[in-house]
What does this fold into?
Amino acid sequence: MSDAAAQNIILIGPPGAGKGTQAERLVKSRNMVQLSTGDMLRAAVASGSPIGKKAGALMEAGELVPDEVVVGIIDERLDQDDIKAGGFILDGFPRTTGQAEALDQLLDAKGVSLDHVINMEVDIAALVERITGRFACGDCGAGYHDTFKPTKTAGICDECGGKEFKRRADDNEEAVKTRLDAFHNQTAPLINYYADRGLVRPVDGMASIDEVSQAIEALFAAG
Ligand code: ADP
Ligand code: ADP
Ligand code: ZN
It folds into this structure.
């Protein structure tokens, strides 16, 4: 495979591991497409669609939405042509063994392969602070943190100059605990699922945002 060939990846890690932050960077550096089921579900909730109505209360409580809902969303999204040029980043999907099996079938049927499953290893004790300090630009969606990644100028988005920011309804301590349980019980087993196929690449998610990016870029360079 040549250096410039598109590669498709999964980012796995608990809430707050830095999946969205790294995906945002890969979109810029490698022209990849970020497929975040969390973002797609939040858009569905905001639009009041039938999927949003099904998912909203579960998300707010920190529980997973049913597999068939997210698998359906990803199935449709993978049919769009934009994923071909730079490859895709699955961010927050799959999160259960059922979703991973469904993804295998979808990728098989579409003739698409996975190159890396990046396991973002983090210290669980650090996650509550990461999550409760998280906010994003209301206009362009760029992600920030009160302490670890503030805007360069207070109150103004670095990327688009926007002045409205938002915090997620589920970024509170109570919902975070439920989300961490869901991660340990339902998502962590996927690491073995993909390790059996030699796809898992561990990355130290406790390093700085720049260092994590460098580690991930090195995986792409290795092919
Ligand atoms: P985080 O970035 O903190 O890991 P996400 O934005 O990925 O959180 O997900 C937020 C919420 O959306 C989850 O707690 C869950 O309710 C729902 N969700 C997102 N992706 C999935 C998925 N693949 N399966 C089931 N529920 C999901
Ligand atoms: P996830 O998508 O895995 O839930 P995010 O990428 O949204 O996680 O990161 C959670 C919060 O932690 C964000 O506010 C982000 O700015 C911050 N963050 C991300 N990576 C790091 C890092 N390596 N060190 C410190 N803070 C980080
Ligand atoms: Zn912005």
User: Anything to note?
Assistant: Residues 173-187 form the longest helix (15 residues).
